[in-house]
Structures are given as structure tokens and as C-alpha cells.
Design a protein that fits this description.
Number of helices of chain A: 15
Largest sheet of chain A: 5 strands, parallel
Protein name (chains A, B): Flavin monoamine oxidase family protein
Mean pLDDT of chain A: 94
Keywords (chains A, B): Signal
Oligomer: homodimer
Shape of chain A: globular
Strand order of the largest sheet of chain A: 12-2-1-16-24
InterPro entries (chains A, B): Amino_oxidase (IPR002937), FAD/NAD-bd_sf (IPR036188), Flavin_monoamine_oxidase (IPR050281)
Strand content of chain A: 15-25%
Helix content of chain A: 25-40%
Largest interface: A-B, 131 and 131 residues
Distance between the termini of chain A: 36 Å
Organism (chains A, B): Kineococcus halophytocola
Number of strands of chain A: 24
């Protein structure tokens, strides 16, 4: 690919393939082999189901999707003004966001390298940056240090932690503690790096201070910004080393280094469900039976039967050559089937986790106007866990802040509350971080608790053993029934996982058809 | 502002004011005091000149701008298909970018906290993210280590540097080298931080390895990405500690921590000159005389006279109560005036620096398709210095990459070449980083050398002493002539500097009018 440069060892650093190479089924596979396209029932029109139907459809498979909800996408769900949702607690929320405002209740960001990007390109879904990191966003952790129980910018926290870590390592290096690890040249290179990385000795020309973190640089952020004339900017002094270390203020820095979370990230313009609707369009909406609740699955000598009730409660049985079941495993485990007890055990193995979000629509973008936060994420050990500021619509007349995005017990605690109480709790805690402004100018709100959401009953699942027999049981076809979904991938909770799993099921099914 | 929370010490971290508080002149200042608005000649319709005219205009000052170029904005210059430019070497380039494609030849990014953002809001200039940091962008440094002379992702470099730095500090801490600096609790907190920050001991449960950087985690990036089924992803092994340290691969990490450069950054939708044209509209285009080259400036007992030639070469003299001179100081120093030799000396003091960019328009967005780089910056010690990938238009049919953005001697070297040779040289060097793809599918190109650009003759200036007498001379009015521009601020090379300096001149001039 890179010609002579590769031979010279000058080829660029490897870029991960988005997934194991995938070749979609092709109509010519049938015409050239004299075989004919088969019928497939896909259970679930979430991202895995839609991808399965889309890829099978490319070769002419006659596909029908059965979907419990009234819309495509599953957990890929964007809520907008006019939508209503009744949760498993029996509460109905009506979304009142202004035109153009939305909240991605499920996935909200796409890494550059995910196969999700390929589908956006193939289907023409416009993308824009998702702001996953912002130096002006905040950290708020409770504790007993001088930097606890208050909002600190990511910017200041980084300056202080990197400053003191660099100072400590420079001192240890100078003291000879690493002479066994590093050559004299390496020690010099390391110190040079640390002085720059940690901004050491920044405000003095004093040699004795060259390896000290003195704070006071603009990296912490200014109280008065540099500007005209003699205004060189003023900076608050850094807290003491002991407070910075003991506070754990750097506990989530590594989030930014993650394969799936490092900038840059993207989002579809207008809402994540643009992907679901683009897939629906590509599949053909007529092939999707919405409001269909699956009540039974049976593999047969000639194919498979699926019982379901339609939106009116009328029972039906559908038959096809194959079934691809993308229903979340903990829900699929409850549906009667004839695939044997090992399948039920396997479906019960992964455990669903709770997660939730609240969208707070404000009539004033105070986070931009007052705080200079244009997108990004605030982290806290309060039960909100994360606050997301919108990545688009800057300087608009309103905006939706994700007031919490939490997991585990925090999410269960909010799930147990009616919406109004969730909102009150979110505002009380958010005000600890942002001040009273957090409770003002809220025009509407909507909260989702995925554990209390019908057809999901959880955000995503976790496996105790993702190489174990239960996992492998679901990777193999059971008679004429295949399984797919992000739970059958190493990208759980990501659309990438759903899509690559769908591709794996499509490949296995098609290979079987082509070799049988 | 935050009520009781402030009293409890719970107010959010300070957010820098964008600049010293500024109150625009107001028409009522005149009506209430019986004074009348004065006339002002503003020299230069760059960002400082436009801002000066805009703010004075709010109170009714009768302002005329004299601008040498045929457009507003000065160095805020967006080149698009159809534009032509003749440089001081005498070469004329005609821009052939496709519709919708552009390059910001001058400023390309705006920090969240700059006053530039306030003008965008006030003037209704739509903004979108500028991608200033991307884990998938590259580092390429020459040298003699195992990681030199090849492209390394920011992602992998960070994983390796942070991994080894953490390992070294953890070892030194464990060895007791920091017992004099840290309490036992702090040492434990520090080690906990380092294990997470450096991803230490990641692939084993072995206690002996708990403080070792073992590489192999997804933070480095995958050769085969995690996906369906049993595909948990494969990672290339990390280079050795000595190579990572000696390579200096982390030499530019601190860029991301800078006050002005830390994410998140923004850009106007469609080009930086949307700001210049919005200001032009707000000022009133009829008040700007384009093609006017200033040839003389005189303060007089009753105001000031300015000689200039118009686009046809016809000489004129304009008179006003005041002049605000925003012409770059090294150019203003050459214009005859009667302000005394100290002013000439002061204008000569700041030295202009060279900088340049080339825009390479490709008919295929290979950096996205092949390399999964959606915006961001590649750094190199090759003479390109930086490569910028476009922050918008993702998945489009074409795109403009900034093939180099360099300074100093590198910029002078390119400035000395005709455009075709600049392009060849940029492609040869870019191919070292990106492979042969860098030279394919280029449909057009345009390069700017600011040192060879008329009315600029440099990118921005540097002062030897920004608190010294020369600087202060230009901060004070000289008779009825004021000076403004980014060179008179602590935000040189930023529009923020030009705008805050303009505001300072406006404030001083208006105060004088109101108290005289």
C-alpha cells in the first residue's frame, strides 16, 4: 500500500482495522452458485438487528424484523419534543424540548475508528465533533483536602498533578534513585521532558528552582486573562503538593487515554438516531414489524418459527429459514424456546447494569456565557457522576445539558425516583458544582433509567467470563437460530459491538447457506 | 452571584474574565453630557481596526477606516476558489479549491475564553469545534532510536511516555527516594494514581509487576480492533523505556495544556473571515476605504491628518479629531510622521516572525478513510512542523489539509521558493509521515508566506521587553494618534490580542473625549 516506503521501514504506524475484515454477502454469490436467497427473521430492530438486515439484504435475503418498540434503534434513542415514554415504573414522561433540541438517551459518541463510522459514511449520515474532553469542564470530588468539595477545572487539575508528579520524578532522578534504570543521557532527556511537561521552574530563572513546580502559570487558568497593554494575566496559586496528591483529583485523567474515549469523537448531526433511521431506510421500513413482542422461538428441521403478538395484542407465528436473535440476553432468557437449557443458562449469564441520564433544557446557555464551557464533560463523585455540555448549537438560545450520566447504585437510586424527584436531586447536586445557576432557567427536562425501560431493562451487560462456555454457546448457531448484539462482542455498550457482532452472524449464516 | 454557596466557600472555581472589564462607549455618554461625537480615522481594517471602529460606532463616533487591502480582516484571511494573491516575490497564485473548501491562511482556531467568542456571539457568527487534539494524529521525529523516523500516533506516544514515567516514579517512591517529600498516605495515593495514569501492570495479576509498564493495552491503539465474538484486539508491543525517553517523543505533549491551546477550541462555520465580514457589516462597509495605502501621519493642534493613496494611486489627505493606527509596527515605522523619534524607535522594536501554510486539496479524504484521523494536528521536526486535518466536512468528497504550518527558518526556507517548489517539498516530507498517499489525489493547492505577504510582512511580532519603554510608548496616545493591535497585548498572534487592544484604545480615547 505504501510502496517503497514500507520496504524501507518507513510505513506509517499501524492503524487498527475497524474489525476483522468483512465482506458483505453479494447477489452474485447466489446467481453464480445457483443457490437462492433465504428468508430470515431478525428479532429486534436495534443496531445489531438493523445491521444484520441491512447486510443480508445486500445479497437479496428476504428479511423481516420483529421489533417490540414503535421505532428503530433500540438503545440508540434520541428524545425530542413531542415524544412520550412510559417506563416500567408506570410513569409517563412527555418530552417538551424546543424544536431542534434533543438528548441522546443511549449512545452519544462515536470513536473515529469504530465501524459505526463506516456505516455513517456508507449511509450518508452527516457527522460533527462530539466534545469528549474540555479543559474548562470541571472536576468535583468530596474529601478532606484543600481541593476537595469544590469545582476545579480539568485545566488546573492537570497543571497541578502533572507539575507535582514531574517535580517528584525530577527530584528522585537527581537524587540518583533511578541510576540503575537510566543512563546519564536518559536521565538528562527525562529531566528535560519533565521540565516541559510539568512546567517546572516556570516563573523564575533560579537554577535551584528548575525542578520545582511553582504553579502560577497560565496552564492553571487565569483569574484575569492576558489582554491589552500591561495585562499579562493573573493566576491563583497552586494548592500544596500534599493536597493535590491526597485529593485524588487526577483519578479520572486516564479516561482521556482510552481506546474508545480519547479525542477526537463524533456524533451525527441532529441526534444519534440518525443512524438508526438511516439503517431503517436502507433496510426498507416495510420489512420491520413494530410493536411485535416475541413470545416463543423454535428451531425446526426446516427453519425456525417465532411466535409474537402485534401492537394490538394479536398473536402470530412467523416462519423463516433462519432466525437472528438480537434481543438483550437477559430478556431473551425469558422467552420460551426449544434450544435447550444450555442456551437459557448462557442467556442468563451476562448481567445487565443500570445506567441513566437526565436532560435539563435551559433557556440560557449559562455554561457557555458564564463559564466558557463549550461542550465536554464534568466529572464528580457526587451521584451525578458526569455532566455533559452540548457539543453543538453554540451560542444558541437554549440547550440541553445532560445533568447526570451515572451507573450502578447511583443509577438505581435515581431509577427508583419519579422524574420530578430525579430532577430535584440532580439540580441540588449540580448546584454544588455550578452554583445556583444550575437550578435557574430550566424550561423542561426528561430522564431515562435504562433499568426501568421496557425492552432493555438495563444499559448494557457484563460477562463474568467472556471467553467461557456460556459466551461461546451464543456465538454458535443453535439449530437455525443465530445470536447477535453488542453483548457478543468486545465492544459492549458500543454500536461498534452491535455492528461487528451482526456482521459475524451474517458471515456465519451466509457461509452456511453457501456451503450447504 | 452564587449566593449562599459563595459564602460557604463552595463557589465554583474562578473563571477568567475574558479581559479587563470593558464598557463600550454609549450614545447617552454624549447626550447626557452635552458633548458631541468626534471623528476618528482608523488605519487598517484588520481585527484591531474593525473592532475599534465597531466599538466607537456604538456611541456615534464618525469613523473612517483606511485599508490597504481589498478586503477586511488583515491576517484573518480565508482563501477560497477564485481568490488571487500576488506576493512580495511577485508570484501570483490563483486559488482553485472546490466550492465550500477553504484554508484559513491566518488564525484558524479560537479558545473558548477569548473575547473573540464574545464578538462571535454578539455578531451572530456560527461556530463549530476546531479539532486541536487527536489521539489518532501523528508524531514524527528524526533521531536514532527505535521510535524515531517513523509515524507514531499521539495515542501510542502518550501511552508509552506516561507508562514509563509512571513506572519510574512508582519505583522511586517504593524505593524510599521520596520519603522526605511524601507521607506514607501520600505515597499510597501517588502509587494508586500512577497505576491508573500509566496503565501499570495491566496485563498480569502479578504483584511484582504491579508497578511496571507492560505496554500491550488498547491505549496504544490496536493492530486489530476489538470486535465480535472472541476478537479482543491485538496490540503491538511498546518500545523499550530507553528508546521512548531518548526519542523525545513527548516533547510537545505540553501543547495540549496551554491556556490558549487546550481543547476545546472553535472555528467559525465556513471560514475564519466570517468574523471579519461580520465586523465589516456591523461597522458599515461604506466607512471602509479599501486599497488605501497610508503614506503619512501627522498629529495637529486640532486633530490629525493622514496622507494616503487610493487604489488608483491618487493621493489624498484625510483629517479627523483622532487617529487609531493598527498598522503592524514594523510597517508603521516606515511611514513618515511627526510623532517624534521615540515613536519610530518604539515601532521598530518588535520584530516580525516568519510563518507559512500550504493548503493541499485532495479529491479523497484518505486521512479519514485510511487513517481514521478526523481533524487534529500531526507534529514533526521535519520542516513541515505541523499538518492540520480539516475539522469539518467529514466524509465529504474532498478536503483541504494544511500540509505545513511552520515558523522561523523553516518558514523562511519555504518563503524563498515559488509555490510549485513549496508544494513539492511539502509532499516529499509529508510522504515520510503518511506514505505515498500524501502525494496522490491532490487537485489544487495554495501557499501563504506571511513574511512575503504585502501589508503584513510577517506572521506576528515579538518584543524583547514587553514591559519596557518602547512598548509603553505605543500604549500611550502620541498627540491625537493612538495605537492598537495584537502587538500591544499579551495575546500576540491572537484575535483576542487585537480585540482587547482595540478596546483599550477605544476606552482611552473615549475617556479623553468625555473629560476634555
Amino acid at each position: 500500500m505504501f510502496g517503497a516506503m514500507g520496504a524501507l521501514g518507513l510505513a506509517p504506524a499501524a492503524v487498527a482495522t475497524p474489525a476483522t475484515a468483512f465482506t458483505p454477502p453479494n447477489p452474485s454469490d447466489f446467481t453464480l452458485s445457483g443457490r437462492s436467497a433465504r428468508t430470515v427473521l431478525v428479532l429486534g430492530a436495534g443496531i445489531a438487528g438493523l445491521t444484520t438486515a441491512y447486510e443480508l439484504g445486500k445479497a437479496g435475503y428476504r428479511v423481516t424484523l420483529l421489533e417490540g418498540r414503535g421505532r428503530p434503534g433500540g438503545r440508540n434513542w434520541t428524545v425530542r419534543g413531542g415524544d412520550t415514554e412510559t417506563d416500567l415504573n408506570g410513569e409517563t414522561q412527555r418530552v417538551r424540548f424546543a424544536d431542534g433540541q434533543y438528548m441522546n438517551a443511549g449512545p452519544g459518541r462515536i470513536p473515529q475508528h469504530h465501524v459505526t463510522m463506516d456505516y455513517c459514511r456508507e449511509l450518508g449520515v452527516p457527522l460533527e465533533p462530539f466534545v469528549n474532553q474540555n479543559a474548562n469542564a470541571l472536576l468535583y470530588y468530596t474529601g478532606d483536602t484543600a481541593v476537595s468539595n469544590q469545582a476545579v477545572t480539568h485545566r488546573a487539575a492537570k497543571a497541578d498533578v502533572y507539575g507535582y508528579v514531574s517535580e517528584l520524578l525530577a527530584k528522585a532522578t537527581d537524587a540518583g534513585a533511578l541510576d540503575g534504570e537510566l543512563s546519564a543521557d536518559d536521565r538528562e532527556s527525562l529531566i528535560e521532558f519533565l521540565r516541559d511537561f510539568g512546567d517546572l521552574g516556570n516563573s523564575t530563572g533560579d537554577d535551584a528552582a528548575a525542578n520545582l513546580y511553582l504553579g502560577g502559570s497560565g496552564r492553571r487558568g487565569y483569574d484575569v486573562a492576558p489582554g491589552a497593554g500591561l495585562q499579562s494575566g493573573t493566576v491563583s496559586p497552586a494548592p500544596a503538593l500534599g493536597d493535590v496528591i491526597a485529593s485524588g483529583i487526577g483519578r479520572e485523567f486516564s479516561f482521556e487515554f482510552g481506546w474508545d474515549q480519547a479525542v477526537m469523537m463524533l456524533q451525527p448531526v441532529g441526534g444519534m438516531d440518525r443512524i438508526a433511521y438511516a439503517l431503517e431506510r436502507a433496510v426498507g421500513p416495510a420489512k420491520i414489524r413494530y410493536g411485535a413482542t416475541v413470545t416463543g422461538i423454535r428451531t425446526t428441521p426446516t427453519g425456525a418459527d417465532v411466535d409474537y403478538t402485534d401492537a394490538a395484542g394479536v398473536p402470530h407465528t412467523a416462519t423463516a429459514d433462519f432466525v437472528v436473535n438480537t434481543i438483550p440476553p437477559h430478556l431473551a432468557a425469558r422467552i420460551p424456546h426449544n434450544l435447550g437449557p444450555a442456551v437459557t443458562t448462557a442467556l442468563q449469564a451476562p448481567r445487565p447494569g443500570a445506567t441513566g441520564k437526565i436532560g435539563l433544557e435551559y433557556s440560557r446557555r449559562w455554561w457557555e456565557e458564564d463559564r466558557r464551557i463549550y461542550g465536554g464533560i464534568t466529572n464528580t463523585d457526587l451521584d451525578l457522576s458526569h455532566i455533559w455540555y452540548p457539543s453543538s448549537g453554540f451560542h444558541g438560545s437554549s440547550g440541553v445539558v445532560v445533568g447526570y450520566y451515572n451507573y450502578g447504585q447511583d443509577a438505581l437510586d435515581y431509577a427508583a425516583l419519579p422524574h420530578s424527584a430525579r430532577r430535584s436531586r440532580a439540580v441540588v447536586n449540580g448546584a454544588k458544582i455550578h452554583g445556583d445557576v444550575y437550578g435557574r432557567d430550566i424550561t423542561s427536562s426528561f430522564s431515562v433509567s435504562w433499568s426501568a425501560t421496557r425492552f432493555s431493562e438495563g444499559g448494557w451487560v457484563g460477562w463474568a467470563d467472556q471467553e467461557g462456555p456460556d459466551y461461546r454457546t451464543l456465538l454458535a448457531p443453535q439449530g437455525n437460530v443465530y445470536f447477535a448484539g453488542d453483548h457478543l462482542s468486545h465492544a459492549i455498550a458500543w454500536q461498534h459491538g452491535a455492528m461487528t457482532s451482526a456482521r459475524a452472524a451474517v458471515t456465519a449464516l451466509h457461509e452456511r447457506v453457501m456451503t450447504s
